[in-house]
């Protein structure tokens, strides 16, 4: 099904396109978010229908060495469960490999285990987290 969709690496995206995409799946869209984080990205994969219409996105952050970090994969609510998210992640994985990375990290909510472990091929590992926001 993802065949009819165009996938692009480091396509120029507007902040407003990311806001619209995030709102489509009920996410918390923060205007200015993309303009702020883009400069810290190794790259990003976007999915489009009909020219520039953005229906999917995933970002790859980087430590400048071996480690890449998959962040914020999202698919428009009207296009979910068609394999687009899996293809976004596959392309992020390939781009990180092409950049010389050895590891692609991700974390996620428990209900998304089938997506990351079965569909995308991540394996479980020990990881740690500190909530700095409080
Ligand atoms: C998570 C997300 C990116 C998946 O994109 P998608 O294009 O719908 O995923 P795919 O169609 O490639 O899914 C492949 C498989 O992963 C699993 N999967 C996908 N979404 C899932 C979900 N929400 N819950 C549990 N399993 C899921 C299913 O096994 C699915 O196969 P199936 O449709 O045959 O059952 C999408 O649901 C999304 O944008 N969610 C909102 C934003 C979000 O939570 N992003 C993740 C941040 S960590």
Descriptive notes:
There is one protein chain. It contains 4 helices and 5 strands; from the N terminus they run E-H-H-E-E-E-H-E-H. The longest helix has 15 residues, at 84-98. Helices cover 28% and strands 26% of the residues. The protein has a single domain, classed as Aminopeptidase, CATH 3.40.630.30. By secondary structure, the chain is α+β, with helices and mostly antiparallel strands. It has a 5-stranded mixed β-sheet with strand order 1-2-3-4-5, sandwiched between helices. The structure holds coenzyme A (COA). Coenzyme A binds at residues 25, 27, 73-75, 80-86, 108, 111-112, 114-115, 118-119.
What is the strand and helix layout of this fold?
Layout: E1 6-9, H1 15-24, H2 33-37, E2 41-49, E3 53-62, E4 67-75, H3 84-98, E5 103-105, H4 113-119
Parallel strand pairs: 4-5
Antiparallel strand pairs: 1-2, 2-3, 3-4
The structure holds coenzyme A.
Report the count of strand segments: 5
What is the CATH homology-level superfamily?
Answer: Gcn5-related N-acetyltransferase (GNAT)
Quick one: overall form? Answer: globular
The N- and C-terminal alpha carbons lie at a distance of 42 Å
Count of all domains:
1
Class by SSE composition: alpha+beta
Average pLDDT, rounded to a whole number, is 95
